[in-house]
């Protein structure tokens, strides 16, 4: 259910709108529910100690990458949501056109995902949300919490001569030994960000993903983004996910239904902390606490 700001306090409503736009993408709840053992019941979190041990399962001659995968919170996998995670100062190597596009996103573009526009690639690979991967005989499907998906064939298909632009691009899968490789071209450019921090990508973008399952409990990605219009060199990004609990799965999430916040959101990603990660907790000062006269939220009329 979407939350509706109380518009009687404009400053608070604006801050709350930023909070909501950040919460859409991403971050794990501050205090997850726990079971009788004290372990997390959250479908967004997983402890290394609880992961299954042993080798990765196999599906025929290849590792089976299927599973519900949640973000790792190891230092090497932070900050979440930032394509420049492994660059000094989180600064991506922009061309002049890239600098211009980034400036425009920050100053003029509302976060596309806050408007219920598909994040696509490479943004979904940097997301703080879990995803579900189902591997078949000649296709793999990635299911996301935004009730969207991408279908990747590994049946020997080749790229089209002139693919229709899409948010995830035209994706062609193949196997390199035990590594699942996805080669994607043909991206939309307008109204999309490369990550949560308003970094841009162009229609010239080419994304190469290499997915491995080193053991039963981990899934690893090495991704290279080539975009000569906006970046002076390939952008390298890597991270690891942890296997969720048995029974965890994505659920329906209708972003556009009752999306009352969209008209009130400002442009750009909001405050990004020195740790390279955006979030409502980066606001200075934080919104005032709710009062009787100005409650934090009201229910959406039924």
Description:
The longest helix is centred in the N-terminal third of the chain and has 15 residues, at about 10-25. This protein has three helices and 13 strands, in the order βαβββααβββββββββ. It is an alpha+beta fold. It has a domain at about 60-260. Keywords: Signal.
Short description:
The chain is α+β, with helices and mostly antiparallel strands and 302 residues long. 11% of the residues lie in helices and 24% in strands. It has a 9-stranded antiparallel β-sheet. A two-stranded antiparallel sheet has the order 1-13.
Calculate Rg over CA atoms.
20 Å
Largest sheet: 9 strands, antiparallel
| Helix-residue proportion | 10-25%
Question: Ends: how far apart?
Answer: 12 Å
Main-sheet strand order equals 7-6-5-4-12-11-10-9-8
| Helix/strand/pairing category | alpha+beta
Short key terms for the protein model shown above:
9-stranded antiparallel sheet, disordered N terminus, 302 residues, two-stranded antiparallel ribbon, globular, 3 helices, signal, 13 strands
């Amino acid at each position: 259910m979407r939350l509706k700001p109380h518009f009687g306090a404009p400053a608070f409503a604006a801050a709350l709108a930023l909070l909501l736009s950040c919460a859409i993408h991403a971050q794990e709840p501050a205090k997850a529910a726990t079971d009788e053992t004290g372990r997390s019941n959250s479908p967004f979190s997983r402890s290394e100690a609880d992961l299954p041990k042993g080798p990765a399962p196999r599906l025929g001659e290849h590792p089976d990458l299927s599973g519900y995968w949640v973000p790792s919170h190891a230092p090497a996998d932070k900050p979440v949501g930032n394509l420049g995670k492994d660059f000094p100062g989180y600064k991506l190597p922009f061309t002049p056109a890239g600098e211009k596009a980034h400036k425009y996103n920050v100053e003029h573009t509302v976060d596309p995902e806050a408007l219920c526009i598909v994040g696509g690639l490479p943004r979904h690979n940097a997301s703080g949300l879990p995803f579900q991967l189902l591997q078949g005989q000649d296709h793999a499907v990635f299911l996301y919490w935004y009730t969207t998906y991408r279908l990747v064939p590994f049946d020997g298909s080749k790229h089209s001569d002139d693919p229709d632009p899409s948010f995830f691009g035209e994706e062609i899968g193949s196997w390199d030994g035990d590594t699942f490789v996805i080669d994607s071209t043909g991206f939309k450019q307008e109204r999309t960000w490369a990550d949560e921090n308003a970094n841009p990508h162009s229609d010239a973008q080419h994304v190469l993903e290499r997915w491995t399952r080193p053991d039963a409990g981990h899934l690893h990605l090495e991704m290279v983004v080539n975009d000569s219009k906006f970046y002076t060199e390939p952008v390298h990004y890597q991270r690891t996910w942890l296997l969720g609990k048995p029974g965890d799965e994505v659920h329906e999430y209708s972003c556009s239904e009752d999306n009352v916040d969209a008209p009130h959101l400002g442009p750009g990603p909001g405050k990004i902390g020195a740790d390279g990660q955006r979030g409502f907790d980066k606001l200075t000062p934080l919104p005032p606490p709710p009062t009787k006269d100005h409650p934090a939220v009201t229910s959406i009329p039924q």
